[in-house]
Structure to design on (1189 residues):
C-alpha cells in the first residue's frame, strides 16, 4: 500500500525527502497523475500541496520571489508578477486551461523540466535563480545552469525546490514571450520564445534570448545574444534571426516538423526585436 | 488510508489507497457518478470538480491529497430541485446534447459565474473570457455556441 | 366530444430537451455509471503488428491466472464474424488466421478489477509471423499484397461508375476536348477521429441462456444482428439495450457490435456480467476513423461559362476490413459532382483495402471528402473567370427542374435561392486584407464561401428495404413511442415527443419515448444517414395519427368523452391491456432508383446549404484563426429550432476542426497520436462565434416538412476554409489539414519575394 505524508513544515518535508528518496513528490499532479490508473503506484507520496513555506509571491531587494508551490493561477493573478515579470503571467495564462492552472505549480514545471515546459524559457530569459533546500542546507542555482539534459536537472536526490527568484528588470529592459501551441488552449508548445532586451535608445545593449521546444531542454541562444549587442533594433532583428537559424536543431515529432519549428523560432525572435 | 473529506457539504469517510484518483473515489467509493471520465489525462475536463474552491480535473488529484478538503461535484450544484443558474440556462439555451461533458461544464461554469469572473465587462469581452475560462472543457456535440450563450445568461442572472 | 383546451402545437417550437435536466444534474446514467455490482472488467489483447499470421497465444506462466478469464476465437460457438455488409471481419483473430491491422483484437480477458485485467493483458503473449504490410492505396491497387478479394487482384472492396450524358469513355473525352477551358485538381482529405467524449462502453450478462447487452451505441438492431451470428442464436436469444450515449457521430454505428461480441463472450465464459469501457488511448487507436480520400477532379466549361463536363476519380482507403466502406464510397460518389448543373458526368470510385485499422462511419459519410474537392474546383473556376465566388455558384447551381449527376429530376424542397439569399444578407464587406496582430506579427485575412448539398436518408431504395417501423402505444398511463432510434445527443427523444404530441393533439408531457431495447421496440432502422427525424419521425407521426384515430373511433362508438388521455385510459381498461399501432415506412411516390446503373433518384430529398468563412493568418506562425463562420441551411422544417441549431453548430465545428486542427497520424500502420493531447479537437477558445441561419423550404413527405439535418453541416466548411486561405494567400491548399506546417512549407508559393 502506498504510504502518504503531508508535512506540516519545510523541515518535516526535507526529512521525509532524505529518508524516502523513492517517494513521489506530489503537488499539483498535473504531470505525475496523467494516466495514473496505468502507472505503478509509488512507494509513497510526499504531498507538498499548499505547503505554506513554499506558497508565496513577494518582491524584495529588487527581485520577485515565487514559491515553488505557487500555482499558475496565483502567479498569473498576482499584481507583482504582472508588474515585474509580465511574460511569466502571460505564460501562466497559456498553461493548459483553468483546471490545470489551478493545480500546476512553478516547482512542478521546473522539476519535471520538460523540453516543452511553458514557463521555463521565461525563467531563462529573466535570468532566474532557483532556491533549493535539503537537510544539508539551502543553496541557490542560476536557472541557466539548472537543466543538464533531457528531463534532467541539478536537483539532488534529497533536495526540494523552494522558490524561484527573478531579478526585477530595469526601465530600459523590455521583456517578451510567445508560445506557439497546437491550438488556442490546452496545448503543448511547438515553439516558444522569451527575451529580455536592454536598450539604449534604439541600440541593443544586452539581450537574453531563450527558446523552448526546439531542443531537449529550454535553451539560451548565446550566438544570437552576442550577435545583437551594439546593433540598432532593425539590424538586430536580422542578426538574431540568422544566429537562431544556425544555432538550433529542432526535431520532427508527432506535433510538428523541424522546418516549421526552425522557421517560427526565427520569426519569433526577430519579431521580439522589431517590436521592442 | 482513512480519508475524511467534505463532499457537497456532507462529511464523508472512505478507506482507499492515497494513490487512488479522486475521480475514482467519487464514482466508485461514494457512488457519485455525475463526474465523468473522458480521457484520464486532464485534457477533456469531463471530470471537473471544485476542490477547496478551485475548479480542477479530478482525474489528476490523488485521494491522499483530499484528506480534510472540500469537494463540490455536479450533484452539489442544485439546492434540492432548485437548479443552479448555469444548469437552468444550459437547459433553456440548448447547451447540452449528448450530455457527457455537461457535468464538467456545469461545475466549471458555476465556478466562473459564482466567482464573478465574467462580471462587469461588455458582452464581447465576457464571451471571450467565457471561452478562455472554459477552454479546459471539451465538447464535441455543440460547437460551444449555445453553451457560451447559457453561461453569459447565467452570469447576468447571478449578477442581478 | 369535448376536448380540453387545445395545446400549443409543439412542432416548430424550441421546447427544452426532455433529457435536459437529467444531463445537467449528472443524473443521466451512461454505461459506466450503471450499477455493475459483481461484474468483472474486460480488456483486450491487441496486435502490435499490422499484417501477419497469428501462430499462437501464450499465457505467461509466472502470472497468477486464477482470477482471470481468458477468451480466444476458440471460444466462439457461432460464426467468428462481426456481421455487417460482408462477413470478412472476425471478432477475434483465430490461431492460424491473418492479422490484418495494428490493434486488431486477438484475445480477451476479464478480471474482478480493471487493474488486474490490465495486468493480465500484459501477460498474454501473442506470436505473430509478420507479413509485409500495405499502407499506401496505390501499392494496394497494384496488388503488392493480397488483402481482399482474389490473389493478384487490386484489393478493391467496392467500385462504382456513374455516367450521365454519355455512354463511353470516348464520348467523355470528346466532351472535354470540345471544352473552352478545363480545371483539373487533385485533392486529399485526412482521416478524422470522431472523439465522442464518452469512450466506447458495453456490458453483457447471461440470464437463463439469453444474452443481455447494454451499452453506448447508435444501432441496437445492428448489434442484435451481429450477435445472432456470433452466438448462433435466434432473435430471442439476445436482447440489446442502448444506455444513455455520450456522442457517436458515426463512430458508434458499427463498432459497438465488436465490443458487444467481446463482452458477450467474456460474460459467457466467466459466468458473470462483464463490462468493458475503453481507455481513450485505446479508443483512438483501435476504432474506426473517417476514410482518407483522394479525389482527382476535372471540370470543363464551355464558351458561355457553363459547366459542360465533369470527370471525377475517387479513391478511399478502407483499412483492413470492408465494414461500411461500400456505403461510404457510395455516398461519396453520389455527391462528388456537387449541386451544379452539368449534362455530362463521369464519376468513378474505388475503396481499397490496406493494413490500416478499418475506416468507418463519421458524420457526412463520404460526402465531406468529395465536397471538399468539388468546392475547391468551383473556387478555382471563379478565380479563373474573375467571377464573384457566390455569384458564380448561384449561376451554376441546381434548382427545381434540374437533373443531378444520376439523372434525378429535382422537385420539391430545393432551397438553393433561399440559402444564397440568406448568406448574402449577412455577408457584409469582406475583411480588410492586411493587418498586424497583438504580437506585432503581420496578418493576412481572407474570405471563402461554398455551396453544397446532402442527400437525406438511405440511398435509393434503401429506406424501402429497411422498412423501418415504429409503434405508438396507449398504456393507460400516457402514450409511449417505441422505436429503435437512439438518442445520441441529436435530440431524437425530444423531436419524437414533439411529433407524437402534435399528431395526438396532446401535451408533450403526456408522451414518453422509451429507451430502445430490442425486446421492446421494433426495428426502425439505424440511427444514421440523417434519417431519424425525416424517416423515423414520419413513421412516428403516422403511428400517432393512427392511434388517435383508433381511440377517437372507439370513443365515438362507446360514447366516451374527454381528453385523449382519458379516452385512452378507458379503452385500455376495457381491453385489459395496452392499445398499440405499429406503422411501417412507406416511401414517397416516384423514387425510382436503379442500383445496377446507379441512375435515378439517389435520395428522396436533399438538404441545401451555403457557408461563409473569414480567416486571419498570422504570417510569423502560419496559424489560421477562423474569425467568422456563417452557415445557412435549408432543413425543410425545424421541428425544434434550438436543437436544429445545435446540430448545425456542432457539425460545423467538427468540419472547421477537420480543416485546420485535426489529424490522425499513422506510423507503420499504428495510430501515433492516440491520446487527447496529440489527437486534438477544437476547444472553446478555438471556435469563433458561429452564426446559423435556418432556412425552411418544406419537404412534403417529412414530418412537419422536415428533412435530414444531422450530417449536412459537416460537408461544406472545410472547403470554405480552404477557399478563404487561398483568398488570403493567393495560392491553393488542396490537402487537409491546412496546418501551420503546410502553410509554412509553401511559403515560396505565397510570400512576396
Amino acid at each position: 500500500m502506498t504510504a502518504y505524508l503531508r508535512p506540516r513544515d519545510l523541515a518535516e518535508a526535507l526529512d521525509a525527502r532524505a529518508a524516502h528518496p523513492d517517494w513521489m513528490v506530489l503537488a499539483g499532479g498535473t504531470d505525475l497523475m496523467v494516466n495514473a490508473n496505468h502507472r505503478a503506484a509509488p512507494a509513497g507520496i510526499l504531498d507538498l500541496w499548499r505547503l505554506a513555506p513554499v506558497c508565496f509571491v513577494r518582491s524584495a531587494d529588487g527581485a520577485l520571489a515565487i514559491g515553488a508551490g505557487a500555482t499558475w493561477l496565483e502567479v498569473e493573478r498576482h499584481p507583482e508578477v504582472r508588474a515585474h515579470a509580465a511574460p511569466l503571467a502571460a505564460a501562466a495564462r497559456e498553461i493548459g486551461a483553468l483546471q490545470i492552472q489551478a493545480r500546476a505549480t512553478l516547482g512542478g514545471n521546473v522539476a519535471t523540466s520538460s523540453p516543452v515546459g511553458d514557463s521555463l524559457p521565461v525563467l531563462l530569459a529573466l535570468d532566474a535563480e532557483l532556491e533549493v533546500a535539503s537537510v544539508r542546507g539551502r543553496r541557490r542555482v542560476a536557472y541557466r545552469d539548472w537543466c543538464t539534459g533531457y528531463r534532467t536537472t541539478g536537483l539532488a536526490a534529497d533536495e526540494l525546490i523552494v522558490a524561484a527568484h527573478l531579478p526585477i528588470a530595469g526601465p530600459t529592459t523590455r521583456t517578451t514571450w510567445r508560445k506557439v501551441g497546437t491550438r488556442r488552449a490546452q496545448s503543448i508548445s511547438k515553439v516558444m520564445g522569451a527575451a529580455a532586451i536592454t536598450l539604449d535608445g534604439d541600440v541593443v545593449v544586452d539581450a537574453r534570448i531563450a527558446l523552448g521546444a526546439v531542443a531537449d531542454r529550454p535553451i539560451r541562444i548565446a550566438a544570437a545574444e552576442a550577435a545583437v549587442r551594439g546593433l540598432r533594433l532593425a539590424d538586430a532583428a536580422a542578426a538574431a534571426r540568422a544566429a537562431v537559424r544556425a544555432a538550433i536543431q529542432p526535431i520532427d515529432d508527432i506535433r510538428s516538423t523541424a522546418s516549421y519549428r526552425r522557421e517560427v523560432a526565427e520569426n519569433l525572435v526577430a519579431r521580439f526585436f522589431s517590436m521592442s | 488510508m482513512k480519508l475524511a473529506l467534505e463532499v457537497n457539504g456532507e462529511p464523508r469517510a472512505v478507506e482507499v489507497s492515497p494513490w487512488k484518483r479522486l475521480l475514482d473515489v467519487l464514482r466508485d467509493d461514494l457512488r457519485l457518478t455525475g463526474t465523468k471520465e473522458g480521457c484520464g489525462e486532464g485534457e477533456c475536463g469531463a471530470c471537473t470538480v471544485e476542490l477547496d474552491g478551485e475548479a480542477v480535473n479530478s482525474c489528476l488529484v490523488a485521494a491522499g491529497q483530499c484528506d480534510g478538503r472540500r469537494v463540490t461535484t455536479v450533484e452539489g450544484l442544485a439546492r434540492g430541485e432548485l437548479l443552479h443558474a448555469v444548469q437552468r440556462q444550459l437547459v433553456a439555451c440548448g447547451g447540452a446534447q449528448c450530455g457527457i461533458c455537461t457535468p464538467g461544464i456545469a461545475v466549471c461554469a458555476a465556478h466562473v459565474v459564482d466567482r464573478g469572473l465574467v462580471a462587469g465587462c461588455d458582452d464581447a469581452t465576457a464571451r471571450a473570457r467565457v471561452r478562455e475560462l472554459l477552454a479546459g472543457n471539451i465538447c464535441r456535440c455543440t460547437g460551444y455556441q449555445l453553451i457560451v450563450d447559457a453561461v453569459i445568461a447565467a452570469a447576468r442572472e447571478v449578477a442581478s | 366530444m369535448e376536448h380540453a383546451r387545445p395545446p400549443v402545437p409543439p412542432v416548430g417550437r424550441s421546447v427544452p430537451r426532455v433529457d435536459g435536466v437529467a444531463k445537467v444534474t449528472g443524473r443521466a446514467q451512461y454505461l459506466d455509471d450503471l450499477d455493475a455490482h459483481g461484474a468483472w472488467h474486460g480488456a483486450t489483447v491487441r496486435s502490435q503488428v499490422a499484417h501477419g499470421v497469428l501462430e499462437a497465444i501464450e499465457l505467461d506462466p509466472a502470472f497468477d491466472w486464477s482470477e482471470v478469464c481468458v477468451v480466444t476465437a476458440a471460444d466462439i460457438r457461432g460464426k467468428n464474424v462481426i456481421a455487417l455488409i460482408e462477413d470478412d471481419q472476425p471478432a477475434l483473430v483465430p490461431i492460424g488466421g491473418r492479422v490484418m491491422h495494428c490493434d486488431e483484437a486477438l484475445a480477451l480477458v476479464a478480471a474482478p478489477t480493471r487493474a488486474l485485467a490490465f495486468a493480465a493483458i500484459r501477460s498474454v503473449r501473442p506470436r505473430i509471423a509478420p507479413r509485409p504490410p500495405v499502407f499506401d492505396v496505390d501499392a494496394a491497387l497494384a496488388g503488392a499484397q493480397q488483402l481482399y478479394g482474389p490473389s493478384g487482384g487490386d484489393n478493391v472492396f467496392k467500385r462504382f461508375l456513374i455516367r450521365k450524358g454519355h455512354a463511353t469513355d470516348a464520348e467523355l473525352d470528346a466532351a472535354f476536348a470540345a471544352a473552352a477551358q478545363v480545371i483539373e485538381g487533385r485533392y486529399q482529405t485526412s482521416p478524422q477521429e470522431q472523439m465522442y467524449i464518452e469512450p466506447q462502453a458495453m456490458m453483457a450478462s447471461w440470464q437463463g441462456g439469453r444474452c443481455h447487452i447494454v451499452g453506448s451505441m447508435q444501432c441496437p438492431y445492428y448489434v442484435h444482428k451481429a450477435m445472432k451470428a456470433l452466438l448462433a442464436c435466434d432473435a430471442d436469444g439476445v436482447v440489446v439495450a442502448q444506455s444513455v450515449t455520450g456522442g457517436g457521430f458515426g463512430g458508434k454505428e458499427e463498432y459497438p457490435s465488436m465490443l458487444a461480441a467481446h463482452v458477450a463472450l467474456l460474460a459467457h465464459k466467466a459466468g458473470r456480467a462483464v463490462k468493458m469501457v475503453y481507455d481513450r488511448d485505446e479508443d483512438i487507436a483501435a476504432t474506426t476513423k473517417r476514410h482518407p480520400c483522394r479525389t482527382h477532379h476535372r471540370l470543363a466549361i464551355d464558351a458561355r461559362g457553363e459547366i459542360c463536363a465533369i470527370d471525377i476519380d475517387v479513391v478511399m482507403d478502407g483499412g483492413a476490413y470492408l465494414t461500411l466502406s461500400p456505403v461510404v464510397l457510395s455516398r461519396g460518389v453520389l455527391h462528388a459532382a456537387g449541386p451544379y448543373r452539368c449534362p455530362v458526368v463521369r464519376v468513378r470510385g474505388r475503396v481499397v483495402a490496406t493494413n490500416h485499422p478499418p475506416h468507418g462511419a463519421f458524420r457526412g459519410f463520404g460526402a465531406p471528402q468529395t465536397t471538399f474537392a468539388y468546392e475547391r474546383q468551383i473556387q478555382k473556376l471563379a478565380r479563373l473567370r474573375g467571377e464573384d465566388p457566390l455569384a458564380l455558384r448561384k449561376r451554376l447551381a441546381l434548382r427545381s427542374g434540374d437533373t443531378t449527376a444520376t439523372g434525378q429530376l429535382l422537385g420539391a424542397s430545393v432551397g438553393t435561392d433561399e440559402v444564397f439569399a440568406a448568406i448574402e444578407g449577412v455577408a457584409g464587406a469582406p475583411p480588410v486584407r492586411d493587418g498586424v496582430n497583438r504580437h506585432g506579427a503581420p496578418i493576412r485575412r481572407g474570405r471563402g464561401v461554398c455551396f453544397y448539398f446532402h442527400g437525406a436518408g438511405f440511398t435509393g431504395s434503401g429506406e424501402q428495404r429497411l422498412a423501418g417501423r415504429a409503434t405508438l402505444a396507449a398504456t393507460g398511463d400516457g402514450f409511449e413511442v417505441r422505436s429503435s432510434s437512439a438518442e445520441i445527443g441529436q435530440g431524437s427523444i425530444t423531436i419524437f415527443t414533439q411529433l407524437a404530441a402534435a399528431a395526438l393533439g396532446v401535451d408533450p408531457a403526456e408522451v414518453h419515448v422509451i429507451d430502445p431495447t430490442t425486446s421492446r421496440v421494433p426495428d426502425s432502422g439505424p440511427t444514421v444517414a440523417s434519417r431519424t427525424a425525416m424517416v423515423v419521425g414520419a413513421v412516428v407521426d403516422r403511428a400517432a395519427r393512427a392511434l388517435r384515430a383508433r381511440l377517437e373511433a372507439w370513443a365515438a362508438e362507446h360514447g366516451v368523452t374527454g381528453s385523449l388521455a382519458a379516452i385512452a385510459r378507458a379503452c385500455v381498461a376495457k381491453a385489459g391491456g395496452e392499445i398499440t399501432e405499429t406503422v411501417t415506412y412507406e416511401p414517397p411516390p416516384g423514387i425510382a432508383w436503379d442500383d445496377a446503373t446507379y441512375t435515378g433518384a439517389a435520395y428522396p430529398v436533399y438538404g441545401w446549404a451555403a457557408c461563409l468563412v473569414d480567416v486571419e493568418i498570422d504570417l510569423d506562425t502560419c496559424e489560421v484563426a477562423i474569425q467568422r463562420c456563417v452557415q445557412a441551411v435549408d432543413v425543410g422544417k425545424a421541428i425544434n429550432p434550438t436543437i436544429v441549431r445545435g446540430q448545425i453548430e456542432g457539425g460545423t465545428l467538427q468540419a472547421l476542426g477537420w480543416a485546420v486542427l485535426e489529424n490522425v497520424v499513422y506510423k507503420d500502420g499504428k495510430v501515433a497520436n492516440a491520446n487527447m493531447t496529440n489527437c486534438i479537437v477544437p476547444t472553446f477558445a478555438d471556435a469563433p462565434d458561429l452564426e446559423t441561419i435556418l432556412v425552411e423550404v418544406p419537404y412534403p413527405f417529412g414530418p412537419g416538412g422536415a428533412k435530414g439535418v444531422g450530417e449536412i453541416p459537416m460537408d461544406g466548411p472545410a472547403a470554405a476554409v480552404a477557399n478563404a486561405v487561398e483568398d488570403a494567400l493567393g495560392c491553393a491548399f488542396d490537402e487537409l489539414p491546412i496546418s501551420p506546417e503546410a502553410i509554412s512549407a509553401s511559403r515560396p508559393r505565397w510570400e512576396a519575394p
About this structure: The mean pLDDT of chain C is 97. Chain C touches chain B through 58 residues (CB under 8 Å). The domain at 137-186+298-367 of chain C is CATH 3.30.365.10 (Aldehyde Oxidoreductase; domain 4). Residues 532-558 of chain C form the longest helix (27 residues).
